[in-house]
Write a structure and sequence with these properties.
heterodimer, A: mainly alpha, Cytochrome Bc1 Complex, Chain D, domain 2, 3 domains, two-stranded antiparallel sheet, 2 strands, B: mainly alpha, 12 helices, about 0% strand, globular
Chain lengths: ~525, ~375
């Protein structure tokens, strides 16, 4: 959550820092060539706003990302640092040039000759874009490390399969944001306002035109497991895709209507909506970028919970207690130990309540069921890392998860059987299955079966698939669940459910192969 | 006996030689501290002169505050830019220590980011409003300076805590949520005072140097600036000896003894002492001399040398603290030679570009008659 807040606002401002620099110097050049004092005045005012936003907020939130990733994912950060420290050092050189140029550009409108001032503007833009060229290699490496896991070669990791599509997409975003932010300092005088409104709209439109094919290219290059997340079964991904498209489309329409067609409509409320659209689209993009990488922080190397894939086997064998440095208690049977494990292994992404809160996700689970589910955690939806602990750890963590909610005492009657059955389904089955949806639908297995027949299958579930936990719900809950599944699986549908291929997570054999490679 | 928890060293090899990372760390950290001292020391100088300059009879103070207002945002910009590089290189060498201490004081460590943003915008507010001399400029500047003093305190806590793995587990168990400070470490307070006072020392040397340059346009004002700066420089250098002694007594005895016995540390320490005393004499006497320029400039140069030597001492102190837990010489190294060469070329190119831009601006700032004469 913390990373998301810092990252989204940073990405928003830092892409503007690149595109806005280009926008400023090109606009200045145009104003000087045409001898357009109004446009030049706009450039001066815009450069002041640009410097105040990018030098302060943009630069410091960039440092903020360093701070937060170091706190939340020190292992992943260390992996990136040990792989790309020289890449970052090169990016820093460009950053240093960029900051110096930005300060001088904003302050030397009166003191420098036109040509010299524009030289500084061009230096700014080139340095800013080159810093994007570098950081793009490191960011894309996290999802598509290419052949790096095999050869540990800097350039193999840097120029990875999504490097170029991502670079084009990010450059397009820079142009779009240059256009959107261009409206913030729109001149008051009608003539100048119309001119700038049309000019900024062109940047926004050009960016969008480049963005669409580059995103298509990008999604074609991402790993298979990431592509599967886009299939529609993941609610968050679905919302992010719709949000990203919606925000971008709205900003584009506003740019065309209020920028190109009727510039006098480009008033502060419209500009505010465009800024919100820009931030929303960036937020959706960042959410997707993070989600598509699950269960990894660095694909094949470090999991999202900051555990190295090469260490999982040892942790499963020896247990967390034998290897962790920081434990609140040495008593591995205590509730505090379970809570400690939760913070160590789940805390990077989940809180007990609140953000991605576990309490609502495990409502209705008992300690045994929770401990059992942990064995199969990596296959739930493919987004979770494998559980890295031994049986003792699983039991302790399972007990902690079960303690997050009071135990269920459902009063099941004939009148609420369906409702209670759905509640049990959502708690026990819904994390991996639907009945009639696209996520591992159960209709095929239970169609034409009575509630009693469905219930008879429950004890055998764990034997049907090694990925299924043992079913241990009380009888009344099992009856209600069977009733619900039978009812749903037999209700008439216009179209039969079309199962979607789901990511299956990293299997233990794959892990072993990775462990050997990384050792 | 309680085991001391040290996170393992990254299994990936170090992508360059330790000496190169150390050299880069010392170089960029020295520049970072110089910028930071200017941002903090300059802020304190600006605040004092702004408050003093509100009375009509202190026109020079008012003028100095206005001039400093134009510099403070840039000082902070370079503090951050250079700090990023220092943070990068320190992570490569001491990542497992720095990440742990940062997590232990995580709540306050994260506060640094919003605090810097507020302080930075405060400096910009002062930048735009100082000359009017009314309203809440002084108040905003005081807030920014206080925030920077607070940030320095958080940094001192983290940088001392990263060297004290023996304190980590107890601290984690007391407050696992990151609400910790390293106040149980006796070296925190003297180290903080040493750093804050040090910022006044260095910025006073910079100001004495700037005073000399200002003498060309306005001899009386330039000399006033240089003399005030020299006085503060001398007083704060004296205080710096006291805080330094306190710090030496506050660090663990075995660390202090090992440092005192080490010939390299002794040499660096001796040189730093000679350098700072010479700098103090040169700046103090120079500011009173008929032709103060050469002496003050030399004193300023020696102040920068002292800063570099103190940064080296700080590094040696960290190595000594971490000796039982870390051995940089034992790290697995696999240099990325091609990328290192590319970095060095671009580094030189970047410096040349910055130099070129500064030259463009400096040339335009020259009085037109001067330019005409040259032509």
């Amino acid at each position: 959550m913390l990373i998301a807040l810092v990252a989204i606002t940073h990405v928003f401002v830092s892409h503007f820092a690149v595109g806005g620099g280009f926008f400023l110097v090109v606009t200045e050049r145009m104003a000087r060539r045409r001898g357009d004092a109004e446009l030049l005045g706009y450039c001066k005012r815009h450069s002041k706003f640009f410097a105040l936003l990018t030098l302060v907020y943009g630069a410091i939130t960039g440092v903020g990302i360093w701070f937060t990733i170091g706190l939340v994912s020190p292992e992943a950060t260390s992996t990136l640092i040990h792989t790309f420290v020289w890449g970052w050092a090169i990016e820093w050189v460009f950053f240093f040039v960029e900051i110096t140029a930005a300060i001088l550009y904003a302050r030397s409108w009166e003191s420098l000759q036109a040509r010299e001032h524009m030289i500084i503007g061009w230096i700014y833009f080139v340095a800013a874009w080159l810093s994007l060229v570098i950081i793009n290699g490191i960011l894309t490496f996290m999802l598509t490390p290419g052949t790096w896991p095999q050869n540990h070669d800097f350039w193999a990791g840097f120029f990875n399969p999504t490097y170029f599509p991502s670079l084009v997409a990010r450059t397009a975003i820079c142009l779009m944001l240059a256009g959107i932010f261009g409206y913030v300092t729109l001149p008051g005088a009608e003539g100048a306002r119309d001119k700038v409104a049309r000019w900024a709209a062109l940047w926004m439109i050009a960016g969008t035109v480049i963005l669409l094919p580059s995103l298509w290219w990008y999604f074609a290059c991402i790993p298979r497991f990431s592509q599967l997340y886009l299939g529609g079964a993941m609610t968050g991904v679905r919302h992010a895709v719709r949000g990203g498209i919606g925000f971008t489309a709205l900003a584009l329409v506003l740019a065309i209507v209020c920028g190109l067609w009727k510039p006098r409509w480009m008033r502060p409320p419209v500009v505010t909506v465009m800024l919100i659209c820009g931030l929303g689209a960036i937020g959706a993009g960042e959410y997707l970028r993070e989600y598509l990488r699950k269960p990894w922080a660095v694909n094949s190397v470090v999991y999202a919970n900051d555990i190295r894939s090469a260490e999982v086997e040892e942790l499963q064998h020896k247990g967390v207690g034998a290897t962790a440095n920081f434990l609140l208690t040495a008593d591995r049977t205590s509730a505090a130990y379970g809570e400690n494990l939760f913070h160590l292994q789940c805390g990077s992404c989940h809180a007990a309540g609140g953000y991605r809160g576990m309490a609502r996700r495990v409502d209705g689970w008992d300690a045994d069921f929770a401990a059992d589910i942990l064995q199969h955690i990596h296959v739930l939806r493919g987004t979770m890392p494998p559980y890295a602990g031994n049986e003792e750890d699983r039991k302790a963590l399972g007990a902690y998860l079960a303690s997050l909610n009071p135990p269920w005492h459902l009063q099941i009657t004939d009148s609420n059987r369906m409702e209670m059955g759905e509640k049990v389904f959502n708690s026990r089955c819904g994390h991996c299955h639907t009945v009639n949806g696209s996520m591992r639908p159960l209709r095929g297995a239970f169609e034409k079966q009575t509630p009693a027949q469905v219930q008879e299958a429950f004890p055998a579930l764990a034997m049907m698939s090694s990925d299924m936990p043992a079913f241990n719900a009380p009888d009344d809950q099992a009856q209600a669940l069977a009733f619900y599944i039978s009812h749903e699986a037999n209700k008439p549908l216009a179209h039969a459910p079309s199962p979607q291929e789901m990511p299956t997570g990293t299997t233990h054999s794959e892990l072993r192969i990775q462990s050997k490679e990384l050792r | 006996m309680q085991t001391i928890p040290i996170p393992h060293v990254d299994p990936l090899p170090l992508p360059g030689p330790v000496w190169l990372f150390t050299a880069l760390l010392l170089a960029v950290f020295t520049l970072h501290v110089a910028a930071m001292n200017s941002a903090l020391g300059g802020g304190l100088w600006a605040l004092w002169n702004y408050l003093r300059g509100r009375h009509g009879k202190h026109a020079y103070s008012r003028r100095l505050a206005n001039e400093l207002a134009q510099m403070l945002p840039s000082f902070l910009a370079f503090t951050i830019t250079l700090g990023v590089a220092a943070l990068l290189f320190v992570q490569v060498l001491f990542g497992n220590f720095l990440y742990t201490s940062s997590i232990l004081i995580g709540a306050l460590w994260l506060m640094v980011i919003p605090l810097v943003i507020v302080a930075y915008y405060g400096y910009y507010y002062f930048f735009y409003t100082a000359e009017k001399g009314k309203g809440i400029s002084g108040c905003i500047l005081s807030i920014s300076v206080c925030i920077l003093l607070g940030i320095a305190f958080i940094f001192v806590n983290n940088m001392t805590l990263m060297m004290r793995p023996d304190r980590w587990l107890e601290m984690y168990r007391a407050h696992p949520n990151g609400w910790n400070l390293n106040l149980g470490d006796a070296s925190v307070v003297p180290r903080y005072l040493h750093i804050v006072n040090g910022s006044l020392v260095l910025f006073s040397a910079i100001l004495a140097h700037l005073g000399m340059r200002k003498m060309k346009a306005d001899a009386a004002y330039g000399r006033w600036v240089a003399q005030r700066a020299a006085l503060v420089f001398a007083i704060c250098t004296g205080l710096q000896f006291l805080f330094g002694m306190w710090l030496l007594l506050a660090i663990p005895r075995e660390v202090a003894m090992a440092l005192l016995r080490d010939p390299l540390t002794g040499a660096v320490f001796g040189l730093a002492l000679i350098s700072v005393i010479a700098a103090m004499l040169l700046i103090l006497l120079g500011s009173l001399a008929e032709r103060p320029g050469p002496m003050v400039h030399a004193g300023f140069g020696l102040s920068l040398l002292t800063l570099f030597l103190m940064v080296c001492l700080r590094h040696l102190l960290r190595l000594e603290y971490l000796r039982p837990y870390a051995n940089l010489n034992a790290l697995n190294i696999h240099p990325q030679t091609g990328v290192i060469a590319l970095f060095l070329v671009l580094f030189v190119g970047g410096l040349a570009t910055v130099g070129y831009m500064l030259r463009l601006v400096a040339r335009s700032a020259r009085p037109s008659s001067d330019v005409a004469v040259r032509r």
